[in-house]
Amino acid sequence: MCGIVGYVGKKEVVPVIIEGLRRLEYRGYDSAGIAVGGTGNGLELRRAPGKLRKLEEVLSDRPIHGTYGIGHTRWATHGRPTEENAHPHRDCTGRIVVVHNGIVENYLALKHELAAEGHKFVTETDTEIIAHLIEQEMASAATSGKTMPLEEAVRRSVARLTGAFAIVVISADEPDKIVAARFGPPAVIGLGEGEYFVASDVPGILHHTRNLYFLADGDMAVITPSGVQLTDFHGNPIERQVQRIQWDPIQAEKGGYKHFMLKEIFEQPRAIRDTTLGRISLDTGKVFLSEMKISDEDFRRATKINIAACGTSWHAATAGKFMIERLARVPVEVDYASEYRYRDPIPDPTALGLLITQSGETADTLAAQREMISKGSKTIAICNVVGAMIAREAHGTIYTHAGPEIGVASTKAFTAQLVALFLFAVHLAQARQTISEDEGRALLEELTMLPGKVEEILKTVDGECEKLARIYSNVSDFLFLGRGIHYPIALEGALKLKEISYIHAEGYPAGEMKHGPNALIDETLPVVVLATQDKSNRDSKLRYEKTLSNIQEVTARSGKVIAVAVEGDTDIGHLVEHVLHVPHTSELLLSVLDVIPLQLLAYHIAVRRGCDVDQPRNLAKSVTVE
Predict the structure, then answer these.
(1) Which residue range(s) make up the domain with 453?
(2) Most confident region among 232-236, 248-252, 532-536 by mean pLDDT
(3) What is the pLDDT of residue 592?
(4) pLDDT digits (tens, 9 = 90+) for 265-323
(5) Where would you find this protein in the cell (predicted)?
(6) What is the SS3 string spanning 504-517?
(7) How far apart are CA 357 and CA 335, in angstroms?
(8) Which of 129, 310, 483, 512 reaches 20 to 30 Å from 210, CA-CA?
(9) What is the DSSP secondary-structure string of 472-505?
């Protein structure tokens, strides 16, 4: 969602904020703005609709200078993406400025109340009312002959808000002070030497410091050149552990690739290795999940696993269902996190909750976690960001260690999630004694070979996908088919294509073709079929044979088939127009190999169509409000 960067220190503030906002562009936005103080001219604002370069043009024409300030990239919720609706927003006096990520649900009632008291509004946003609430609190104190500190006025104002918000506030009357408050969307505080930062995500400030506080819901930070004070919304001092971020800032750069997405596709071998590192022993065949406050006895008692996730993470969750049920023999139910709490789930303290989210701050997934906990379940988070909210509230965490993912369309985070789910499934199976030591060792040996096999695919398939893009970049529809664990990978392939190329694409279970999708097939419809197999697995061979029948259904209706098959499968080439080969591996891990060609195909088609691959329209990287 929206990007926020703030700075107080000795440096010229504008370059720091603009650089930080640029590093947060992956979150998606449609306008940008900055407010700066510290020169004796009060607070100066510059705003512009469109991309960050538009704001930079405004700053070039009308420069501003100072040593503290806040900046914002807005993803429109209330009000059109215009200059007047761009953040930051002022109060009536112009001396209080606010930036905001989230949605104030009761903003209309507050706006009517403030308007009745004489406040004049100039935007269509919900954010503007926050500045006016703060102004009202300070004016009320002044009427009584008192001076109210900015943080107290913010504290009283947020108590009147309902909804989700991360806000950052500065005032011309209290120079070199930034106040930040969080309830829902993420906010991090960066600790430097005589300088301090605030941002809505780590990459925005990672070039300046790796030492961060992650604010929790109900936290407020007062940031000055002398340090950071943390309190709750009632003013009580609190402590938060300083988190040391291990990501190299260079990881967040394109590194010679044309787009972040392509870079992140090619980083997948490293991400898989890092997710596996230190968690397996080939000597014993065991999986070790150290950050787990759930005992093996809890795992043995579990009657069910409830998984909740959104978007790409939901596809990983659905693949994880196959892994967990196959290995640990425990029922798994997968929900869209956005729907979970609205179906009034049945309490079951013996069920375990599993939440999957790249950012660890996805609003719907956090809500699902809290619902699970309220029903008596212990929860486990699979997350990519150390110290994120979902990890702090979980009873156990499996960090994916994929590193920063900048492209909106998730790639390496998805494959890292699949690997984390595989590790969890093996660990759970070992605790429940549903697989032998030899079976565990064999599975982990296959896992250790996975990064090399992904590297092989990237070398051989990238060019083939680029050729396919020349053929199919102008079609209007795609169909993706898969069976078993490969069905959620078909869903993911369709999602990647529609996200970044804007081609309508649909993923479907191959066995359901006769129940409707066959009506769509003609010579204009490309159909991507996941036809990989593990020849050592009887069920996999049976699935493969059934998938070949589905391919023949498509070709009989003149559909164009792009098949993903394992190396050495020469038979399938006689049935289809195009084959993308991947190496052999075990059935459950084929899901990781399957998705690599689908990512590359989507990428190259989007590039040929001239789409903004890293920042597709209408989408944000982290959905931090419902």
Answers:
(1) 260-608
(2) 232-236
(3) 96
(4) 999 998 998 898 888 888 788 898 988 889 999 999 999 999 999 999 999 999 999 99
(5) Cytoplasm
(6) EEEEEEHHHHHHCH
(7) 13
(8) 310
(9) HTT-SEEEEEE-TTHHHHHHHHHHHHHHHH--EE
**Spatial strand order in the sheet of 526-530:** 504-509, 477-482, 526-530, 560-566, 578-582
Residue 247 has pLDDT above 70, yes or no: no
Quick one: which of 170, 81, 171 has its CA closest to 124? 81
How many angstroms separate the CA atoms of 278 and 298, rounded? 23
Mean pLDDT, residues 44-55: 91
Angular region, 283: left φ>0, alpha ψ -120 to 50, beta rest:
alpha
What residues are labeled active site?
2, 621
User: 620 in a domain, yes or no?
Assistant: no
Same domain, 446 and 493: yes
Please compute Rg for the chain using Cα positions.
26
pLDDT of residue 523: 79
DSSP tally for the chain: helices H, then strands E: 17, 26
Give me the phi and psi of 188, to 5 degrees please: -125, 145
Place of tokens 């306008």: 31
Please report where in the chains the tokens 């008596």 appear, as a residue.
376
Single residue among 245, 274, 307 that ends a domain in this structure:
245
Question: What percent of the chain is helix, strand and coil (3-state, nearest 5)?
Answer: 40, 25, 35
* Burial classification of residue 609, based on how many CB atoms lie within 10 Å of its CB (0-12 exposed, 13-18 middle, 19 or more buried): middle
Q: Determine, yes or no, domain membership for 273.
A: yes
Q: Is residue 618 part of a domain?
A: no
Q: Are 223 and 196 in contact (CB under 8 A)?
A: yes
Q: Which residue has 């004070």 as its token pair?
A: 229
Q: Which of 191, 218, 245 is at the close of a domain?
A: 245
From the list 423, 403, 421, 422, the residue with the least C-alpha distance to 413 is 403
pLDDT tens digit sequence for 420-455: 999 999 999 999 999 998 999 999 999 999 999 999
Amino acid 95 reads R
Check if the beta carbon of residue 486 is closer than 8 Å to that of residue 555.
no
Structure tokens at 417: 């999630």
Give the total number of structural domains in the chain: 2
Residue 253 located in a structural domain? no
Q: How confident is the model at residue 252 (pLDDT cuts 50, 70, 90)?
A: low
Distance from C-alpha of 37 to C-alpha of 35, rounded to nearest angstrom: 7
Q: Give the number of other Cβ atoms within 10 Å of residue 106's Cβ.
A: 14
Residue type, 248: D
Instruction: Say how far apart CA 563 and CA 95 lie, in whole Å.
Output: 62
Beta bridge partners of 220: 181, 231
Q: Which two tokens stand for residue 340?
A: 């979970």
Q: Beta-strand (E) ranges in 258-409?
A: 280-281, 286-287, 304-309, 332-336, 351-357, 378-383, 396-399
* 506: β partners: 479
Q: What values do phi and psi take at 559, rounded to 5?
A: -70, 150
Q: Which of 121, 68, 83, 77 is nearest to 100 (CA)?
A: 77
